[in-house]
Amino acid sequence: MKTDHLTARAETIAASENESLWARTGGSKALYERAVQHMPMGVPSSFQAWDPYPVYLRQGKGSHVVDVDGNEYLDFHNGFGCMIVGHAHPKVAEAITRAAHTGTHFAAPTEATVQFAEIICERFGADSIRFANSGTEATMGAIRVARAATGREHIVKVEGSYHGHHDPVMFSVVPGSDLIGGRDAPSTTPMSTGIPAVMSEYTHVVPFNDLEMLRTLLSERGREIACLILEPVMMNIGICQPEPGYLQGLKDLLHEHGAILIFDEVKSGGTVAYGGAAERYGVRPDLACWAKAICGGTPGAAFGGRADVMDAIGTGAAQQGTFNGNPLIAAAGIATLTEVMTRDAYAYLADIGTRLATGCTKAMDENNIPGHAVDLGAKGCVSYRPTPLRNYRDFLETRPELYLASYPWAMNCGIFMTPGDEEQWTLSVQHTDADIDAYIDQFAAFCSTLAKG
Asked: Predicted confidence band at 453 (pLDDT cuts at 50, 70, 90)?
């Protein structure tokens, strides 16, 4: 099938489906017109923006959400990966209610704080952790501790990865093909305005699944480099898994030069396995960062790992936060990790995740659509490129126009999805076989319609 035919079909479908979506979301349009008066882009986070306006939600229950117009959807967005427990899970809601009745905030440690720390350390194999309030704060804290522990200032990140919106990691996140530099010399390109140019001198960029470029960088500047931070499985480009031996190779190379390995498990930590990517791929980092799915939809995070590295906090590395270890968040996190997200829960998610990815693969194969599906526990995605991604540059070869047609199609079929082809679906323990079938059915219909002409 010629790609120009697919592009034309996708553009036709997108135009028709978007018109239908706008016609049924007048309440969202009106709310956007209110919101834009008081919030830039009409949203609390730029990632929530969409053209011409986002769909505003009113409530969620189980695997369903309802927008302000009363349209009901099956939720495969799930709060950018936070809601692996599903919406309003009784055990999480009960834990939050109990905590609210005994005090919502103290800015002092509590027994729940201590218990939550113990649970995280045991589950993810850390000696010591500190709490934060978001993935951004967790990665920021981990990098500072790594710098303090090594006495070095430079860091390394992976091309095409997002680690939050603090300055040192806001480079080479989504650079266009005209800004990425050569394959042997990726550019350190800022994602945002407002970042001092001098910051680029302290952040170095290497490709995912490439040990040789890191080896070269370390041989030249290893004495300056404190750490490398990466998602052990990249999730800013759909899903890109590490090749066999890559993660262990990173750890060995970094340790050879006295540098620290940081896993950003903000997205993967509560979703791809009971013990996160460290368990799934069998490599334990020096430090790791967790957020999103570990706190049952509340704004909590943590980072930690080796005791000797974390000891830098006690010897001068600042790490603060008024709401760190908040009792409401701790209660939600304890319930999430001990009562809901058990090993049996991950077995269930693996089962329905495989069913979903297999169904999507079949639909693409039957209609000769150039794409592949990834199955990774509660996480998965369709990438419109025939073969799996190895790195960010492979992601630039995907077909965004196909996604831009699939998004309004899914929404009009009652499937709530993430706004952006770099994102993934997230399943919850409250999704059913019928929910999975509904997703597959609409996607198969989309592929069939796309292939016609």
From this structure: low
